[in-house]
Design brief:
Distance between the termini: 127 Å
Strand content: under 5%
Helix content: 55-70%
Radius of gyration: 42 Å
Strand order of the largest sheet: 6-5-7
Number of helices: 43
Structural class: mainly alpha
Shape: elongated
Oligomer: single chain
């Protein structure tokens, strides 16, 4: 204890010097500080309990508590005690302690006795400790029984006596509690009892005593945390651990410990300049708790997180924690977290690894990957960047736990194929609830750090930025796990940043706060992105071919990242964190589903039943299914998803304001006109492309996997998102990427179109009322109902550039949206405007797209059906099929699977396209548009070709097994084509009749046969069609006669690709070749290059050849004559 004496003596000397210099010490000592009195009493009682002669200290104590001059103190020789030593619990025989006569109760004494559970005079209660030694001392010094009542004057002396009471002399519950437990109990009782007396009716003495009691409790708690060995205790835990245990038990944070002790101790620690001594041991203790929990299958140590959130609530503690976080990377030196280090994970030593199958097994590579991932947990690894942050950062440890950690997945979803759906759902809900609670506690911690002062807030934002910077690899499909953090840190950090954004991204605040977001944040000198956004990100402006942009030049922006306001930094960090966290995990969900679908097709459903035998495929299926459910539990939490939607809603509000040149950037949203103004706003098109893709992926996947989460989102946010989708989709100059624009249509299809209008597509699920409510947003905004349909019609052709199978899927969904919109009156005018003369160029582009789809899609699908039918027939011929070698049979089956997949997807889209042509053929505006010279012959040939394929002599080739499996309904397809032809004939008149009769696909007998089929299903239209067929026969005969009259055309009049006479010749500037406009235009729909030299080529580059056209027209006229 010598070091403690020296320390206290040094503190006393400093305090005396300070008091003398300020004139605060008088001869009586009445103005000496409570802390000075406490320290003297602490040293005196400590030595007293050890049996040390304390005469010198007693003299010093008398300067603080002088003996009354009226009563002579009785001197006591303590060495005459029968036990040889003075005991604090012993009644001293040298002084006769008389029972106090009955007198009026002192209310102050009674209240203090209830708070502290001690008394100076005996009482008849086993729960109240009698401080006999203090009673002896007071009687020796004052010989005045009135001074034995507890009061503000003697309370500190009594409390110090109680704290130094030998544990062996305590009894009952007091014997089992540590000094820290006792003080925390006193504060709890103070809150319950003492606060009742802090009112106007209470005496000044009562109020003073109650205030002093709180002051002394806090003072001693602080001392105990600073000097944990200074107080006698048989309790095994350190005072800080006792305090932490109390905080852990109070998860709700409503106890006296959380609301009174911690804030007051923080203030006292700051006053004593010992914040580091007090708070660092508390934080390090909780850090150890979290790290130990992270190594188990229950990493969500919510009690420790709750305790940490309460410790960080006071500003001094939060500021110091921020300083610790900031100093951690600095202390590493060099490149900080980017420096690699070797760690060894000693956990999971007893993992049961599945045996690998033979290398020739189709799942060998997959299972080897799984095995390798498990083995990595059992050996040393080199980590750096965000992976090192996750494993070592002091702040990351509170953000790391996740339902997707390997141990949680293995423990929570073990034997997943055997468990019932209700058990699995219950476990998912438990993990989801724990994850949500962790994110709330983490937010409480970080929000407290942000309120800890300017430097503290800067430390938090720097940590966010640094972690996002080093986690850039998480956006890759297969990131380097030694360099990026796991899903837990990424998800929880995003959740915290989103919670920090709530004050300005709530629907009612967006119009008011959007102006606080500085669009120059992503631009510094040279136009680079900030640290959190890598420079190699694809921007919205990518592919804009150097198009001019409007706005402030980036060369004039020289601010650093942390020179921007708090709202701006949070907004952009939230966009990036959401990309690396929730969006990354959502894409994993899709990947797991694809893998599971592949495995299920490989082994069949029976192999996955609960009682099915074990196999390598079954094991792999269980692994991916467990990961899928765990990822869904941690990612699709409704509160988190709602925050994500609000963020992208704010993004839409902010982007459209910038695009429309809203200088105020607040107040009601200005009217949005589309296409958006050109040139595009520089700060919008310089946003990373992923921010829009993330928004669409989020909406789409929520509608599919967690539709109920969408129902928790305010309608205003969903409307704002829809407005943004439509505005950008309608403005190709803002993003040239067909993938991004196609993603808008996918999001609208998934979230805003009800399941009842999705045909055979995978339903979104969820509440039907909520689906209808979201669908109503399609009619609520002038921006949407004036521009959605035209933008989709335009996009239909552009998605060709996304790739063959992707384009098929996109077009099918666009067609379903258009069908739904066609039946809504407010959208019909927008359809018609798109087909009007002023937009004819755009309409021709769209029409060529659907004609191409009908030609290629149906022709390709029907050919696949013929091959499928042949394989089915061969399989029924057992002798022939068994005569094939196993390799030949496997090859035939692989071709069959490919044919089935192709036919299924193509017919799904082709059916919808035929239906679209059918309903468009009813409207006179569209009929007129289709009759344009650029479309007429192609439309006539396409519809005639389909009808002949279905009703012609080869129609029997399509009689396959299970046609519905391939979305093949020949009757429905024939009706659609038949009706479309008749309606175009009604609206197009003779020109359409001539076009069909001369197209080369028309056959009178087949058209007549089709009428016989239609007679069975729709007899009311057959008579008119037959009359028209007669006209077609005449037109065909006339066309043949004209062709014979023309004879052989000069070579320069022929299109070099189709070798047909050109109608509208145009020159290709890069190769100099001359082609028919309709042919090259069709080519450019799929390929934006010159077909002769592969140089870039667009439709506006084509050069008309009026002289050649005149020569061709003259030749035709002369030849006919």
């Amino acid at each position: 204890m010598n070091f403690l004496k020296l320390a206290l003596a040094d503190e006393n000397e400093k305090e005396k010097s300070a008091q003398l210099s300020s004139g605060s010490v008088n001869s009586g000592g009445s103005n000496q500080s409570v802390d000075h009195v406490r320290k003297l009493r602490l040293e005196r009682l400590k030595q007293q309990c050890q049996g040390v002669n304390t005469r010198e200290l007693e003299e010093s104590d008398k300067s603080v508590h002088p003996v009354s001059k009226k009563v002579k103190a009785t001197k006591v020789d303590r060495h005459q005690s029968p036990r040889g030593k003075h005991s604090c619990a012993e009644t001293l025989t040298e002084v006769k302690l008389m029972a106090a006569p009955k007198k009026k109760k002192d209310p102050v004494n009674g209240v203090l006795r209830q708070i502290f559970n001690f008394t100076i005079v005996p009482v008849s209660s086993d729960e109240i400790l009698h401080l006999k030694s203090l009673q002896q001392e007071i009687m020796e010094e004052e010989n005045n029984e009135a001074l034995l009542n507890l009061s503000a004057e003697n309370l500190e002396r009594a409390l110090s006596t109680r704290l130094f009471f030998p544990p062996s002399d305590l009894s009952g519950s007091a014997k089992r509690e540590s000094p820290m437990d006792y003080l925390l109990g006193c504060m709890t009782r103070h809150r319950r009892i003492g606060n009742r007396y802090l009112n106007k009716e209470s005496s000044a003495e009562m109020k003073e005593a109650i205030e002093k009691s709180k002051e002394y409790i806090v003072n001693y708690v602080t001392t105990m945390l600073r000097e944990p060995d200074a107080f006698p205790s048989s309790y095994p835990k350190m005072p800080r651990d006792v305090l932490i245990d109390n905080l852990k038990m109070d998860v709700g944070g409503n106890s006296a410990v959380a609301q009174d002790i911690i804030p007051l101790v923080a203030a006292e620690a700051e006053n004593q300049e010992c914040v580091e001594q007090i708070v660092e041991p508390l934080i390090r203790s909780l850090e150890r708790d979290m790290r130990q929990a992270s190594k188990t299958a229950q990493p969500f140590n919510l009690a420790a997180l709750a305790a940490m959130s309460k410790i960080c609530k006071p500003k001094p503690f939060a500021a110091h924690f921020s300083m610790m976080v900031r100093q951690q990377e600095i202390s590493l030196g060099g490149k900080g977290w980017e420096t690699s280090t070797v760690v060894r994970d000693t956990n999971n030593r007893n993992i049961n690894l599945p045996a690998l199958p033979d290398p020739s097994h189709p799942l060998y590579a997959l299972l080897q990957t799984i095995r390798q991932a498990q083995l990595e947990q059992m050996r040393s690894e080199t980590i750096q960047d965000a992976c090192r942050i996750e494993k070592e950062s002091l702040l990351a440890v509170f953000l790391q736990p996740s339902p997707t950690s390997d141990k949680v997945v293995a423990e929570s979803f073990k034997d997943i194929l055997v468990k019932s759906q209700s058990d699995t759902r219950a476990m998912s809900n438990v993990l989801r609830g724990q994850s949500s609670s962790l994110q709330q506690f983490a937010y409480d911690i970080i929000w407290a750090m942000c309120k800890g002062g300017a430097e503290s807030r800067k430390s938090v934002l720097e940590w966010f930025s640094r972690t996002l910077e080093l986690n850039a690899g998480r956006s890759q499909l297969q990131p380097d796990r030694s360099k990026v953090s796991g899903d837990g840190l990424a998800m929880n950090m995003a959740a915290v940043v989103l919670r920090l954004c709530r004050p300005f991204m709530e629907p009612g605040k967006q119009n008011e706060k959007a102006g606080l977001i500085d669009p120059t944040f992503l631009c510094t000198t040279g136009g680079s992105l900030t640290r959190a956004f890598p420079d190699d990100l694809t921007l919205l402006s990518a592919g804009n071919d150097g198009a001019e942009t409007g706005g402030v030049s980036v060369n004039s922006i020289t601010k650093g990242e942390h020179d921007f306001n708090f709202v701006t930094q949070l907004f952009f960090y939230a966009l990036r964190a959401t990309h690396l966290g929730p969006i990354s995990c959502i894409r994993k969900i899709g990947d797991y589903e694809r893998r599971l679908g592949h495995l299920q097709r490989m082994v069949g459903r029976d192999a996955l039943l609960p009682n099915a035998p074990q196999s390598q495929e079954r094991t792999a299926f269980q692994v991916y299914l467990s990961r899928l459910i765990a990822t869904q539990a941690g990612t699709l939490e409704p509160v988190l998803m709602s925050d994500c939607i609000k963020l992208y809603s704010l993004l839409g509000n902010w982007m459209l304001r910038l695009a429309m040149g809203d200088e105020q950037m607040k107040g009601p949203m200005p009217k949005v006109t589309v296409p958006l103004p050109s040139p595009p706003n520089q700060f919008v098109v310089n946003l990373p492309e992923h921010v829009l893709s993330d928004a669409t992926d989020l909406v789409k996947n929520l509608a599919i996997h967690e539709p109920d989460a969408l129902s928790t989102v305010p309608q205003e946010c969903l409307q704002s998102l829809l407005d943004m989708f439509v505005a950008i989709m309608s403005s190709p100059h803002y993003t040239k990427s067909p993938h991004v624009r196609a993603s808008f249509a996918e999001a609208i299809f998934s979230a805003y179109i009800p399941d009842s209008a999705k045909g055979s597509e995978r339903p979104s699920g969820g509440n039907e009322t909520q689906q209808i409510s979201r669908a109503s947003l399609l009619n609520s905004s002038e921006l949407v109902f004036n521009n959605l349909a035209p933008s989709l019609l335009l996009l239909y052709g552009d998605v060709e550039a996304t790739g063959y199978y992707e384009a098929v899927g996109h077009r099918h969904h666009i067609a379903l949206i258009l069908r739904y919109l066609w039946d809504i009156p407010v959208h019909r005018n927008a359809f018609r405007k798109f087909a009007s003369q002023e937009n004819m160029e755009l309409f021709i582009k769209f029409a060529n797209g659907i004609i191409n789809q009908t030609n290629d899609g149906i022709a390709g699908a029907l050919q696949r059906l013929r091959e499928i039918r042949q394989t089915q027939q061969d399989q029924r011929n057992f002798a022939m099929w068994n005569s094939l070698s196993e390799d030949d049979r496997n090859q035939r089956l692989q071709v069959l699977e490919e044919n089935e997949r192709h036919a299924e997807s193509q017919l799904l889209l082709s059916n919808e396209v035929l239906f679209m042509i059918k309903y468009l053929s009813v409207d006179p505006v569209f009929v007129e548009a289709f009759m344009s010279s650029a479309l007429l012959s192609r439309l006539a040939g396409t519809l005639s070709s389909v009808l002949v394929s279905l009703a012609g002599p080869r129609g029997v080739d399509f009689k396959i097994d299970n046609p519905e499996k391939y979305n093949f309904d020949p009757r429905d397809m024939l009706i659609k084509v038949y009706e479309a032809l008749l309606r175009f004939a009604q609206g197009g008149g003779d020109q359409f009749t001539v076009a069909v009769g001369s197209c080369g696909f028309y056959k009178y007998e087949v058209f007549d046969k089709a009428s016989k089929h239609i007679q069975k299903w729709k007899p009311d239209i057959v008579a008119e069609f037959r009359d028209w067929n007669e006209k077609l026969k005449t037109a065909e005969e006339n066309a043949k006669a004209d062709e014979e009259a023309l004879g052989e055309a000069p070579e320069e009049f022929l299109d070099p690709l189709l070798m047909s006479v050109m109608e509208d010749p145009v020159r290709l500037p890069t190769s100099g070749k001359i082609m028919d406009r309709s042919v090259i235009t069709q080519h450019l729909l799929n390929d934006k290059t010159d077909p002769f030299n592969r140089q870039p080529l667009s439709e506006d580059m084509l050069e008309p050849q009026p002289e050649l056209k005149a020569q061709i027209d003259a030749w035709k006229k002369g030849a006919k004559v």
